[in-house]
Specification:
Structural class: alpha+beta
Number of strands: 11
CATH topology of the largest domain: Ribosomal Protein S5, domain 2
Radius of gyration: 22 Å
Largest sheet: 6 strands, antiparallel
CATH superfamily of the largest domain: Impact, N-terminal domain
Mean pLDDT: 94
Strand content: 25-35%
Low-confidence stretches: none
Distance between the termini: 25 Å
Order of helices and strands: EEEHEEHEHEHEEEHE
């Protein structure tokens, strides 16, 4: 869902890895929330299908997902709960989640809440609170990263010095993209803000660390995961 034409250049999402799970019990009903990082509707919907198979005896598998840097794709499903009491509150919990004070930019997140009915009716208001709280509690505990569209610059250096140079660049605070390897050289790829001063500073640092033997070559832009501060 990420596009070079997006108006947004950075947003927050789940860290790459296995699906994140969190469970709440509310008036004897079990609410099992599963979060998945998703970059397409297919990936988001696959989570629902997988959980229907895993929790085949559950009464409800409600869902909500938000996709794209601009969060322009938003879907929800109540899956048999009274209209508006499950999917929309789940979606709101994602959309309104603050990732920094005053910042609500969470995207590429698919959430499914599996409910096992405990025999006590919660009422419409109780359901809204339960589904919202379930997703909010999971998001509070889930690992998050910043996803930024950065300028990729390449430095070609001999294999013998690549490891040390990469270590020094990381220690200096540079974000490294995926490394590639040639017959004699290693291609280190730095991800830096698309700004002239930042690019100049990165180029100067590479030249300094290699005694002027290597420079940086621009290689387009990519979306890169950056750890949250």
């Amino acid at each position: 869902m990420e596009s070079a034409d997006s108006r947004t250049t950075t947003y927050t999402t789940l860290a790459s890895g296995p699906d994140f799970r969190h469970e709440l019990e509310i008036k004897r009903s079990r609410f099992i929330t599963v979060l998945r990082r998703a970059d397409s509707e297919e990936t988001a919907r696959d989570l629902v299908s997988a959980l229907r198979r895993e929790f085949h005896d559950a009464r409800h598998h409600c869902s909500g997902f938000v996709l794209g840097p601009d969060r322009d794709i938003q879907r929800s499903n109540d899956d048999g709960e009274p209209s508006g009491t499950a999917g929309i509150p789940m979606l709101d919990a994602i959309i309104k989640r603050e990732t920094a004070p005053g910042v609500t930019d969470l995207s590429d997140v698919s959430a499914v809440v599996v409910r096992y009915f405990g025999g006590i009716l919660l009422g419409a208001g109780g359901l809204v609170r339960a589904y919202s709280e379930s997703v909010s509690a999971a998001l509070e505990r889930a690992p998050l990263v910043r996803r930024s569209r950065l300028r990729i610059c390449e430095a070609s250096v001999p294999h013998t010095v690549a490891g040390r140079l990469e270590h020094d660049l990381r220690a200096a605070g540079f974000v490294m993209a995926e490394t590639s390897y040639g017959a004699r050289d290693t291609i280190l790829r730095l991800a830096v803000p698309d700004d002239a001063e930042e690019l100049a500073a990165a180029t100067e640092r590479v030249r300094s660390l290699t005694a002027g033997k290597a420079g940086l070559t621009p290689a387009g832009t990519e979306w890169i995961d950056v750890p949250l501060p």
